[in-house]
């Protein structure tokens, strides 16, 4: 069963009163998240190797080695020499130290484009708040989506597609709309490529289902295609016409292949109980 414990939105502006007991937890969560992202990015970078040529010293001491071209000081102890040599080598930064350089570099995908930054902001402030019956439930829902968007490249790509589709339908003729649509389609291609790799590596029942994988497939399924043709709103004054953005999602064409894949993965992992209730509880009716 997925955990029902929900952490606060540590990566967003916190509105608690000064001196709140939550501040310590928020700071710890933020540092832990940035450290994880720094460690992941550091692991993906090409390693810089530094080779040091060593030659035996004159005296047959244990572990007595010196740098090539360095004078052999008989008065210098072996431990001192080791310490001096180690200081000459490049020591990689620890994740905590690396993360301290840029605490806002918290996305799994480095250096997102300006359109992508806008779309992430749009998702949190416009798209996600449409789901949830109270502020608490809306916060839990947004947390489950945004956290995985920040930590998973696959979910990030899919989320950019979803936000670009939603924005294009809700804001027809807006400035820069073509760039937004193009960016969403580019990320859709990347999401499908990553998804294919993960599906090939997937082994049913081998471990707990990856909620990020399910979420990415769900986003791809909902935002299969969309219709931008001009047409009158059927019920412009009816609350039911805009409830949970049904007037927007009603202009989308679902991707049947992704829906079938989602059904298969959920069934292989024990049914609906394997799904994170905070992430999917309010969007399953779509």
Number of helices: 12
Classification by helices and strands: mainly alpha
Number of DSSP strand runs: 4
Q: What's the domain count?
A: 2
User: Cα distance, first to last residue?
Assistant: 23 Å
**What's the overall geometry?**
globular
Secondary-structure element sequence?
Answer: HEEHHHHHHHEHHEHH
Mean pLDDT: 71
Q: Per DSSP, what share of the residues sits in E-state strands of 2 or more residues?
A: under 5%
Give the fraction of residues assigned to helices.
Answer: 40-55%
Strand order of the largest sheet: 1-2
Poorly predicted regions are 1-20, 49-71, 83-101
Largest sheet: 2 strands, antiparallel
Radius of gyration: 26 Å
Q: Can you characterise this structure?
A:
The chain is mainly alpha-helical. The protein folds into two domains: 36 residues, no CATH class; 173 residues, no CATH class. It has twelve helices and four strands. Strands 1-2 form a two-stranded antiparallel sheet. A two-stranded antiparallel sheet has the order 3-4. Helix 4 crosses helix 6 and helix 6 packs parallel to helix 8. The protein is globular and about 50 Å long. The N terminus is likely disordered.
């Amino acid at each position: 069963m997925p955990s029902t414990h929900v952490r606060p939105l540590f990566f967003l502006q916190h509105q608690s009163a000064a001196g709140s007991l939550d501040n310590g937890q928020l700071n710890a969560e933020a540092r832990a998240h940035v450290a994880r992202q720094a460690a992941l990015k550091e692991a993906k970078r090409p390693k810089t190797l530094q080779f040091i040529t060593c030659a035996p010293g004159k005296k047959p001491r244990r572990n007595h080695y010196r740098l090539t071209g360095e004078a052999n000081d008989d008065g210098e102890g072996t431990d001192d020499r080791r310490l001096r040599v180690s200081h000459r080598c490049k020591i990689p930064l620890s994740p905590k130290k690396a993360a301290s350089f840029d605490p806002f570099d918290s996305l799994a995908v480095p250096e997102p484009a300006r359109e992508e930054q806008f779309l992430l902001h749009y998702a949190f402030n416009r798209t996600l708040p449409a789901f949830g019956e109270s502020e608490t439930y809306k916060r839990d829902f947004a947390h489950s989506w945004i956290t995985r968007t920040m930590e998973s490249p696959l979910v990030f790509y899919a989320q950019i597609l979803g936000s670009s589709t939603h924005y294009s339908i809700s804001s027809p003729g807006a400035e820069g709309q073509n760039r937004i649509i193009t960016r969403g389609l580019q990320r859709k291609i990347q999401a499908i490529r990553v998804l294919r790799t993960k599906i090939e590596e997937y082994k049913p029942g081998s471990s707990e289902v990856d909620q990020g994988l399910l979420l990415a497939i769900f986003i791809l399924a909902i935002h299969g295609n969309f219709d931008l043709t001009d047409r009158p709103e059927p019920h412009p004054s009816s609350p039911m016409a805009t409830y949970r953005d049904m007037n927007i999602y009603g202009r989308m064409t679902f991707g049947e292949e992704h829906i079938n894949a989602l059904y298969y993965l959920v069934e292989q992992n024990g049914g609906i109980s394997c799904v994170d209730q905070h992430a999917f509880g309010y969007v399953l009716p779509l």
